[in-house]
Amino acid sequence: MPQFRRKVPFSGKAKKEQLKAKRNATRSKNSDDECESGKEAPSVQQIHFQAVSKGRNNKYALKFYQESKDVINERKKRAENEIVKMPESALEVDATEYYPEGLEFPKRPYWEYGWSRERLEANETNYFKNYLEKIETDFDRKSLGYFELNLETWRQFWRVLEMSDIVLFIVDVRFVPFMFPPSVYTYVTLKLKKSLILVLNKVDLVPSSVIEAWQQFLKDNYSDLTVVLFSNLPKGSKKNSQKCLEGALSLYEACKRVVNGAINIG
């Protein structure tokens, strides 16, 4: 029969290390389980086309391709490499390299008001499936960034574009070409014939020279685009509040110019 062991003093530091080890073990197990389920790349038939329940909790859940365990492990190994400091010139990028020709966002397919809901949804589902198959055929998935695979999210995007008089597209000023697909500009301004305002957010995080460079780039490449600067500074000082107010007023004035003063925000 086992004997009772005498209790050993347990310091706060030891307790903290025990909890840390337990969390790491749990995190590692969850990561391995997720990777095992995604060893093989998922096919487009597994994409989340429609909510499976009547509730809205899962309807707009983010859906992405799941990376294999080998890919994740390789990234972990690279993360352990020594950090090499690069020259400032390494920060310069070709603004056109992120969206090569043929890589566009899914657009709402042709439809008619007289169609039933079932026909409309079936048409959109078939279009989206073909869109993803074409992406997989034309491009190496490893070279692509994350993009939304939930059709419900795209449906909402289509309807927002159709219902809006002015489209506001917000991007981080540090990643302008990465976050602003040229196909969005072309579709909104040429196909839908609507005004597009690009909001460069977080301008307080970069030098003024960077802001001016992006403004000039956008002016040269997107003639019908209105650009507005916006600062998302934390609360706490009158100076920060004033800058946030200036950004909101600039956006309001830009909307007024687009509609020749006939703005209605009521």
From TrEMBL:
GO terms for molecular function: GTP binding; GTPase activity. Residues 1-44 are annotated as: Disordered. Keywords: GTP-binding, Nucleotide-binding. It comes from the Eukaryota. The keyword rRNA processing does not apply. InterPro entries: GNL1-like, P-loop_NTPase. The keyword Transport does not apply. Residues 29-39 have a biased composition (Basic and acidic residues). This is G domain-containing protein. It comes from Cuerna arida.
